[in-house]
Amino acid sequence: MAQRAVWLISHEPGTPLCGTVRFSRRYPTVEKRAKVFNGASYVPVPEDGPFLKALLFELRLSDDDKDFSESRDSCSHINKTSIYALLIGGEELWPVIAFMKNGMIYACVPLVEQTLFPRPPLISISGISQGFELLFGVQGFLYSGQKNDSELNTKLSQLPDLLLQTCPFGTLLDANLENSLDSINFASVTHPQKQPTWKAGTYKGKPQVSISITEKVKSMQYDKQDIADTWQVIGVVTCKCDLEGSMPNVTISLSLPTNGSPLQDILVHPCVTSLDSAILTSSSIDAADDSAFSGPYKFPLTPPLESFNLCYYTSQVPVPPILGFYQVKEEEVQLKITVNLKLHESVKNSFEFCEARIPFYNRGPVTHVEHKVSFGQLEVFREKSLLIWIIGQKFPKSLEISLSGTVTFGAKSHEKQPFDQICIGGTAYLKLHFRILDYTLTGCYADQHSVQVFASGKPKISTYRKLISSDYYIWNSKAPAPVTYGSLLL
Amino acid sequence: MSSRHAAPRQGLACLTMGPTSRETWAQRLGTFRASPSAFMAGPEGEDLGRHLLSDLRSEKLSEPTKISLLALSLEYPAQLWPDAPAAEAAATSLLDTLVLLPPRPSALRRPLLLAATTALAAGGALGPTSGASRRLLPLLLGLASGRDLGRSFGPASEQRTLQATAWECLRELESCKPGLLGGCLGLLRGLLGQEGAVQPLSLLLALALRNALVIQARARAGLQGLLVAGDWPTEGGPWNWMLAEEGDAHLQPQAPSWPAAEEGECRLATLELSPEEARELRAAVAQLLDASYLLTPVAQAQLLWLLGWALRGLRGQPPVLFKPQLVRLLGTAQLTLLHAVLALKAAFGEALFTAQDEALLLRRLTLAAQHPALPLPARLFYLHCLLNFPENWPLGPAGEEAAPLLLGSQLCRGLLPSLLHDPTALLARLHLLCLLCVEDEEKEEKGQDQSPRRYLEELLAGLRQRAALDGGPRALATLCFQASYLVARCLAGQPVVLTPLTHGLAQLYRAQPALAPHFVDLLDRVGPELGEPLKVVLRQEVVSRPGRDEALRWHLQMLARVADGDAQSATLGFLQAAAARCTDWGLQQALLQVCRALLRAGVGGGLADLLQALARQLEDPDGRDHARLYYILLAHLEEPKLGVALGPSLAAPALASSLVAENQGFAAALMVQEAPAPIRLSVGPHRAKGPVPVLQLQVEVLEQVYSLELRFRVERQIYAPLGAVHVPCLCPGRPTRPLLLPLQPRRPAPSRLAVRALYTTPSGLTCHARLPPLLVNFADLFLPFPQPPEGAELGFFEELWDSCLPKGTESRLWCPLGPHGLEALVSRHLEPFVVVAQPPTSYLIAIRLPPDSRLLLRLEAAQADGVPVALRTDDWAVLPLVGDCLRGLSVAG
């Protein structure tokens, strides 16, 4: 269950090493056990320098990927997880968990409590999920509220102390590092009986509960006979419960209006104490039918002090909020483009913002644009080969808008123009970005009656909702487009 | 400070004059961390540990500096204090520093406790003879249990914060020395009911409980009241090391490996618990599980792994205790919790998960593997879990990834790959798609257009299109070839998939010859199902399209891999045309590589002409020499010899001189080659005679070998090193005599022998091969005692029987009998060791166990289905082995 070592490495392309070890921590008592358990197959944890080099090479983040290298590029060298074997000094260090997020590489080496030869399946190694959880925890800590480099540096400098609290001997005690930061501050509070470990202290003050539902909608639209358009809603419900008492019991319910779309694939926070089997089994894997459970979705729980994600869900709404088509015709150095967008009548026509980004890849710079829009305005970013159609806060009464125009390109000069591995030939897309406040696509809501608190005092309840777009693509219907298996099942 | 370090350098001068300043330490720690090995090899390395300890007591250094020193000692104790005596001294010094701290609050106490624990555990000093251990353990237990240790140990409020730390220290010590806290189980249980930190106590109790169960199972003992409260150990007082000493030789995995992976490792089933003990154990586990909700998710997961391991296979401990937790756990998004549920699934199977439960778990896992709200690394791990799902009734071979039976294509729909995925996700999902295609073929076409196979084809085409992009990153090409390899491996038997794949790859080569190294790599790794047709189309592709000049280099590299005896004239024609354009050294070498490949393939006539022409026409003298050499070889050597001369491929074609490289080729023929095993070895029937046990090895010959030398290595050095065995010649089909291998056990225990073979092939190459390890069973070590004089047998046996105690032990067990009864069992397996026989119901058996142990068995009053066995031995350690051995014999019949 334990980790032998942890690293944080910033990826710095263009520098001689392409990266710097920003933090590392070794656990010698775990290393000692690794030596016994792994026996003849034991490979020691390397020093930072060689580890950095081997990891960047394996992750293809060092600059020397020009030539074919068998140890990295061989067709049989297949990684299907974020767990790698690193070749260091002729020996193979395995398993190394590593992933990159926002330019930072998170890595650790879990202890395997048996011989490494033959390699046991990852599922049998408890340290794997513990290692992931540790790295996710560190990532969550570094990026919570952090805006710039100096804040990142401050957080990095707090890490040694925090890990001394949450992972003193390599076995993780709490993946929520913020929690430990609190418990350092709460140190003088005595623990009454049955105080959960994940709750560092107790709240004193006015009782209040806030629930915020954020839905993201993604879509792939093709406007083709043989390929179905797809769309999906992904929701997350975030709560903050400021309630007195060491373990207040709370039940939060989410409701749907009569024509709402059922929530599926619900994953809950571990503080939820029990789950209705209808919630557990409602899943997008099944073919949709009318008998689907449509709530109310009740979550009995004991809330932690901090803000937490009560649940995640997905949903299949009957229509996409904005339906569109995009057609691109190539005429010598010019592209003729036509875009049509229609807001569905059931969707709230009041955006915080709404725009369509139309990029052009693997071509020269935009030299000339002629266009006509029925609504909004078009901005041209020549160097980036990008058009942005700013639609604004509202669709017009007809709910339908269009754009047509011709775009002329200059000669293609390598390096500078944006490269894309998908948009080859006529393959092209536009991407919609929008946000609607106080609205969810599923209809899912929480209100004053959604919260039951079994503790003294009636809490003030505030609720928030918003819908945002995410990966909302409309593909050129005149050329091939990447499809998912789901879109082929007509 | 030693005299060789007396050079007047600034840092060193500081060392000699007393405590080092904050800046110097900061700089020194920085240098150390950059490369510990370089620092330790330098002048300051030797004394670093000593200075660190002494400066911790310096009054001039601030607390933060001291904390940074302690942080270093937490990470690098092995460098600072490399052996057990040094670690013991360091721990003592750290404890002294702790005691000497003034009674005001201090941030040093916690890291000092951690550092002393780390030094002892990592330095291997923890044990009954270590003074530091005898001080640290009661101190930790006192702090942990919240006893007031007096003002000298900081204010009461600080002692409370040290409580959790003390628990963690104890848990780490128990992890490194299983059984250490076995004597405190009762106390820990008592504390769990009281107020205080639930999490560290729960985890420690679960770990200590699990360790105690395993150790007692190994010793064939019960829990012996361990779960009932006892006395607190006091500082300086005796600590109960009994369990730890027994557990010492077997460091216990904290988490169970998958059941299949550690067959026979932990036989908890042998643990005999009294009803009273079983009840206590159940109560303890239930108590832990009930409070588990108060633990952080990662700690809950640890607890479940530990308890799952503790109860697995334990008689009378039904896993239903876990059931109330499962629904709550299945609903969460936590990776560790779902993983722990899978561990329980693997441990208990149908006993905990009905078929419906299994289906639900599989669905939750499937939706987690595709849930867009979870981070990608977690989703990929879930997908791995899905393909390694511990099914109640698995159908396929163990250890191979497969889609679980209940996971139909409907369930997988959201898990299939698309070009938009990142490479790792794409490959993982592609594997699943391939597995579905296998099933799809089994079900056979239903005329549906959009079969998974069709989708697979389109996906591969998309990958090839991306790989063909001019100036695209190499990762795109690599991904395309990895996908092709995966498909070829999973769907080797499906020409409907491989044929379009072959043609697609040929097209890709036409579009982008610079991918030649990837093609060569692919051909080297795939099986003949794809390899052979691909070779043919690629050769056609090369020889029929001479291509532009920049592609010539790649064409030649490609041809060196795919050229063989077929399509000779086209190949030679291409080479003749190419020769004129091979103006630089690199191209000429590439051209000669192709000639060499043809030479090896036995291409004759036309090649001779080409080589002669090259020997005249090439600009580079090295190239000309080479062409001439090949021509001479072709003209003078017969085909098989030619093969040997050119045998092992060139190690590094980029070497400065190709003649050097060629020499390497010849040299390689003279060196030892790694090869597959030419023979198969197995252990034959046991010969119970002579002064030492002797293994009879049966040999099955697969290939003809000469001057065979077999080398053996004993695992864990349980026996003295074994001499090599030599055999002059072995031929397949000819009978061979068994090889005799005498063993000299250092203790009577089974082991494994690693076997390596060194031999010469008929073509004269020297080869080296690793053979599968040989298992030496416990019974293979049995030897009889010298035959006593007639009539004195019974007295002889009784004398041996009595001599076992008090040093040794006595035990009784029930040995089930097969249909042929006791007589058959004895005559088949124990005949040589019988001292007194009264067939068919009673036998007295005396076995000598080298080096100097004995095992005595009384098999008396056999019944139809079994026989009670009384056994004595003068060696405790063999007891568990005897039980297994007897059961094994009775199963074998």
Automatic annotation (TrEMBL), chain A:
In what residue span(s) does the MHD domain sit?
A: 206-476
Membrane spanning segments where? none
Predominant place of localization:
cytoplasm
- Cellular localisation: Cytoplasm, Cytosol; Late endosome membrane; Lysosome membrane
Q: Topology relative to the membrane, per the entry?
A: Peripheral membrane protein
Instruction: List the Gene3D superfamilies.
Output: Mu homology domain, subdomain B
Gene Ontology CC terms: AP-type membrane coat adaptor complex; cytosol; late endosome membrane; lysosomal membrane
Q: Which UniProt keywords apply?
A: Cytoplasm, Endosome, Lysosome, Membrane, Protein transport, Transport
The UniProt record lists the keyword Nucleotidyltransferase? no
Per the record, the similarity remark reads:
Belongs to the adaptor complexes medium subunit family.
How does it associate, per the subunit comment?
Answer: Probably part of the adaptor protein complex 5 (AP-5) a tetramer composed of AP5B1, AP5M1, AP5S1 and AP5Z1.
Write the protein's name. AP-5 complex subunit mu-1
Lineage here is: Eukaryota, Metazoa, Chordata, Craniata, Vertebrata
TrEMBL record, chain B:
Q: Mind telling me which Pfam families this protein's record contains?
A: AP5B1_barrel, AP5B1_C, AP5B1_middle, AP5B1_N
Residue ranges constituting the AP5B1 C-terminal domain according to the UniProt record: 796-888
Positions of the AP-5 complex subunit beta-1 N-terminal domain: 52-120
Q: Which GO annotations describe the biological process of this protein?
A: endosomal transport; protein transport
* GO CC annotation terms, alphabetical: AP-type membrane coat adaptor complex; lysosomal membrane
Q: Which residues form the AP-5 complex subunit beta-1 beta-barrel domain?
A: 704-774
Q: What's this protein's name?
A: AP-5 complex subunit beta-1
Task: Could you list this entry's UniProt keywords, alphabetically sorted.
Answer: Protein transport, Transport
Chain ranges of the AP5B1 middle domain: 277-642
